[in-house]
Design a protein that fits this description.
Number of strands: 36
CATH topology of the largest domain: Rossmann fold
Distance between the termini: 106 Å
Largest sheet: 7 strands, mixed
Strand content: 15-25%
Helix content: 25-40%
Oligomer: single chain
CATH architecture of the largest domain: 3-Layer(aba) Sandwich
CATH class of the largest domain: Alpha Beta
Shape: globular
Radius of gyration: 30 Å
Number of helices: 33
Structural class: alpha/beta
Strand order of the largest sheet: 5-4-16-15-14-6-7
């Protein structure tokens, strides 16, 4: 027998397999199933099976040649280090201080890593902008680092290129004096970028730098120019403010410095036994917000009427600023004026960033007239580099592009092709620029239109710096190097124009060395700053400002908004300006107040919906200056009549999975001249779109059994007003906990409903996203929810926020029905889940009166997904068919116990902070040992207004609440109760 038979029976080679695959009729389907991203790229480039075969053949040849190449070999030995860095301990987390920049301002963070892999983000308690708290954007940014949709390749003229090719192409077109060179960035406060720009101006004197992002502080900048003739910015001091007035300002959850402001504001509202004073908040707002929900008195006004209200308020204190239409309650206004008059020097007027410049100027004049400057607020020189009205500067750039004056355009960050105003033809103008390049985290709408695209390094991967809302110098320290070696940072892009090839670390350090040359020991100063994340004593001093004498006459000459239905534009509560559209954590996270998930909607009052003859889900048409969009209606109590609010950032059409709402892009109707408040037309359109909402499972339950609230006066008169006395019907003796007894206390007065606790829990405990369809079926996996209970009293709509984790009941109904003892109690009071015992009967979920248990209907996690690198190695990953719930972060309890055993001491109070409590910016959640005398949680549970949810069921929950307290003006409170 010949050897040919053996040859015929040989195993197919790799080349044969590739050839056979490419020749199959179902080739495209197979490729889509195995690698949908590659399939999409091949389809976009029109590559057929033959071309695919050629490409794979070339890949095999290149792969063979790669083994002979040594030039790209790493400079260090590829072996596990035998001498581990002393700060790295296997199994223990290592924290790095850093900062995240949003809207130009730095927020101090602590980045937790495990063996060099960043895992989660918490607030930096030493940083003035966070004070230990965090928000949705800072926590969600860790997922951006591992997002598989990140751009990793340099592209030029429609093909994959090297960065060297881009550098050569840029050098060939750079004009000698900078004529025609424009740089477009987002808002910048970085001292390093500012120093680099000065060097670029010296080298290219005719180059120009523009800053633009759709969510900006243009109104504040212009308002301070009106009031003081210079671009200063206010910094608020809530510790000294007894009366606070918000003029459409969501200062607790939507402005630079909100984390610090929320903490300071709530520190003046924590009522304990013996307390008899707290601050008072009046909120005038055009859209329901967390700040308005915390107000003692809230006035819903159309956004354009806030201007008239502010003018009238100024007139009450001798500031003549004209008048406008008066549509508000006169008694409400008079009570506010009297309260401000009684609190001169200890009051505070805050104008929201969406209000026009004249409102900001009048707020400055009011604070001056009331003697608040220097007490409850100061003004500092803006930390932003070259603060301008960005809308005007951006429009000027586009005009120059259309005129052919721009030859080279470098876009550093941002996505102006998506976020540009509808009446600014940026996309069309970009086609007139001969050379354009875009640095971005994703290959997005702007990248597709530019001649070059450069992948951007994530802020966790590269060195940088920025300044906080109060001017404090902050360091952006990377705990790891770039995951992809072809990415570049904004600092490196600026350095490219200067032929500076130093590392970002060296560039930043050099800048600081020059800026702090007077520091005696710079090395020690730099090391301390990197360690702490912020330079000590670098907050900006108070600026010397003088109110313009002509401010009243200047403001009175500014016309109010035009007629028509008012359309209000707001940043998306979870996606911001759209930059987080690829972030599935933030897409799925319920929005504060509405609990909308994955969707955009037009928010309107019940009266407005009735006048339009629409119900929730009916499509409505919004038209501004001839541009229209359709969006589903969503009815929300407390919204002003005859106005509609729509969120920015949706409708990008990134993929069928992430975004099915191609027409829900509010930028398509947003005008440049009035980017926040526009006059337009709203009408009913044909069709429906069911908005995805994470419904509260407490709907229909007796409100008194869930959330309890009262006034400060009621508390002083009867501190135990929130107490109930359930009957003890137990037939058996209770458990005895001789050691630790873990418990939680949640102060409803301090909860602002920001949902940071939900995301903090998700990142800590490896909770998966389930997608829009599963959310619509009520199968979300969050271990913690925040209910927003709406109450209407005396014509006022009030929201009461209530975080609801597992109660860890001492008499747990779930334990009594589990047939396999998968949910049991331990000797310290924790209601535990034993995952490998669970057989998925779901009896425990059906028997839980708090509905806090979640069931894995599917395996939601793909082990091969790089995005899962964020997972916490200390927490088990659950599988299909298993029940899960809040564990009180038992992994943190165990870690603290191990340390206490090692040190031969008891676990100190405050050593265990669950993820939800760590994320909370107002410290509304406190955890600890109930058995320990003097512990914070034991003291809170001993407060007279402490109560348990549904305690009449005798479940004896370990999680209890402090009743929500408010401080209404008695004159208004009496009149509201009488209505």
């Amino acid at each position: 027998m010949s050897n040919n038979t053996d040859q015929d029976k040989r195993q197919p080679s790799l080349a044969d397999s590739v050839r056979d695959l490419a020749e199959r009729e179902d080739f495209e389907q197979i490729l889509m199933e195995h690698d949908p991203r590659l399939a999409a790229v091949l389809k976009q480039r029109g590559m057929d099976r033959r071309s695919f075969l050629k490409m794979m053949g070339a890949s095999l040849v290149l792969a063979g040649l790669q083994g002979c190449v040594t030039a790209s070999a790493p400079g260090e030995a590829i072996i596990p280090y035998v001498r581990m860095p002393e700060e790295v301990i296997a199994g223990e987390a290592l924290m790095f201080a850093s900062s995240m920049v949003l809207s130009g301002f730095a927020t101090g963070l602590l980045i937790e890593t495990h063996e060099g892999r960043p895992h989660r983000i918490e607030g930096n308690p030493d940083h003035p902008a966070s004070l230990g708290g965090s928000d949705l954007y800072t926590q969600g940014s860790i997922l951006e680092l591992y997002n598989p949709n990140r751009s990793t390749l340099t592209r030029g003229e429609g093909a994959v290129r090297s960065f060297r090719e881009f550098r050569d192409a840029l050098a060939a077109v750079l004009p000698g004096d900078g004529s025609g060179l424009r740089i477009l960035t987002e808002t910048i406060s970085s001292p390093t970028l500012a120093a680099q720009w000065q060097a670029i101006q010296q080298r290219y004197p005719n180059a120009r730098w523009h800053q633009y992002e759709p969510v900006n502080n243009d109104n504040e900048v212009a308002g301070m120019e009106l009031a003081f003739g210079q671009a200063v910015r206010p910094v608020f001091t809530f510790e000294n403010a007894d009366v606070v007035v918000s003029l459409d300002a969501n200062f607790l959850n939507g402005m630079p410095g909100s984390l610090a402001y929320a903490r300071q504001f709530m520190d003046q509202r924590r009522i304990r036994e013996g307390s008899d004073s707290m601050n008072r908040l009046y909120a005038v707002e055009s859209t329901p917000t967390p700040t308005g929900s915390m107000a003692d008195h809230r006035l819903a006004l159309a956004a354009s009427q806030v201007d008239s209200f502010t003018r009238a308020l100024a007139g009450a204190f001798g500031i003549s600023a004209g008048s406008g239409e008066t549509t508000w309650d006169g008694a409400w206004f008079d009570a506010l004026v009297a309260d401000l008059e009684a609190h001169r020097g200890s009051s505070l007027i805050i104008a929201g960033p969406q209000q026009p410049p004249q409102v900001h100027a009048l707020a400055a004049a009011l604070n001056d007239a009331l003697g608040n400057v220097g007490s409850t607020l100061t003004y500092i020189e803006s930390p932003i580099v070259n603060p301008l009205v960005q809308a005007e500067d951006f429009a000027s750039l586009v005009s120059d592009m259309q005129a052919g004056s721009v030859q080279v355009l470098l876009i550093i960050g941002g996505n102006p092709a998506f976020s540009a105003p509808a009446d600014v033809a940026f996309v069309e103008a970009l086609g007139s620029v001969p050379f354009s390049a875009h640095l971005s985290l994703y290959f997005d709408e702007t990248s597709e239109l530019c001649s070059w695209h450069i992948p951007q390094s994530h802020y966790i991967e590269t060195w940088s710096d920025a300044r906080a809302f109060n001017g404090a110098y902050s360091v952006v320290q990377p705990p790891i190097g770039p995951l992809y070696d072809r990415t570049r940072s904004p600092i490196q892009m600026f350095a490219l124009l200067l032929d500076d090839f130093r590392s970002p670390h060296d560039i930043v350090r050099s800048t600081w060395e020059q800026a702090f040359a007077a520091v005696p020991n710079f090395e020690a100063f730099w090391n301390a700053t990197v360690h702490d994340g912020v330079a000590p004593n670098t907050a900006s001093p108070a600026a010397s400002v003088s109110l313009s004498g002509a401010v009243a006459s200047t403001v009175s000459s500014i016309a109010a908004a035009g007629s028509g239905t008012e359309i209000i534009f707001r940043p998306a509560p979870t996606l911001f300006d759209g930059r987080f559209a690829w972030n599935t954590w933030l897409q799925e996270l319920p929005q504060p107040l509405t609990s909308i998930s994955w969707d955009n909607a037009a928010l309107m009052s019940p009266a407005t919906a009735a006048s339009l003859n629409v119900t929730e889900g009916n499509l409505v048409s919004l038209t501004v200056d001839g541009n229209s969009m359709e969006v589903p209606a969503f009815i929300i109590a407390g919204h002003p009549d005859d106005s509609v609010t729509v969120s920015l950032g949706y409708g990008r059409g990134l993929s069928a999975e992430l975004d099915r709402r191609q027409n829900f892009n509010a930028y398509t109707i947003r005008p440049n001249g009035s980017p926040w408040i526009a006059s337009g037309q709203v009408s009913r359109a044909g069709g429906r779109y069911d908005v995805t909402v994470i419904r509260s499972t407490s709907d229909g339950v007796n409100l008194d059994a869930m959330v309890r609230f009262g006034t400060l006066a009621e508390f002083v008169a009867n501190p135990e007003f929130a107490k109930s006395k359930p009957k003890d019907v137990n037939l058996l003796p209770g458990f005895t906990y001789d050691e630790n007894a873990w418990g939680m206390s949640i102060d409803l007065t301090a909860c602002i409903g920001c949902n940071a606790c939900i995301l903090g829990c998700q990142t800590e405990n490896n909770i998966p996203n389930v997608g829009k369809d599963a959310v619509e079926n009520g199968r979300e996996m969050y271990w913690l929810r925040v209910d927003a209970h709406q109450v209407s009293e005396g014509g006022q709509d009030q929201n009461y926020f209530q975080p609801v984790p597992c109660m860890h009941c001492e008499n747990a109904p779930c334990e009594q029905v589990c047939p396999v003892q998968a949910t049991v109690h331990d000797n310290q009071g924790l209601n535990q889940m034993v995952y490998n015992r669970c057989v998925g009967t779901r009896y425990c979920s059906a028997n839980c009166p708090y509905t806090v248990r979640r069931f894995n209907y599917f395996d939601y996690i793909d082990p091969a997904d790089i995005a899962l690198e964020w997972r916490n190695p200390d927490v088990s990953v659950r599988v299909e068919g298993v029940m899960e719930k809040c564990t009180f972060c038992v992994q943190r309890i165990n870690a603290a116990r191990a340390i206490s055993i090692q040190n031969n001491e008891a676990i100190p109070d405050g050593a265990i902070v669950p993820a939800c409590a760590a994320a909370c910016p107002t410290q509304a959640i406190v955890f600890g040992d109930v058995n320990k005398d003097g512990s914070q949680v034991a003291e809170l549970k001993a407060q007279p207004h402490n109560y348990g949810m549904l305690e009449e069921l005798n479940t004896f929950p370990r999680t209890t609440y402090l009743a929500r307290l408010s401080n209404p003006n008695e004159a208004l409170h009496d009149s509201e109760e009488g209505e």
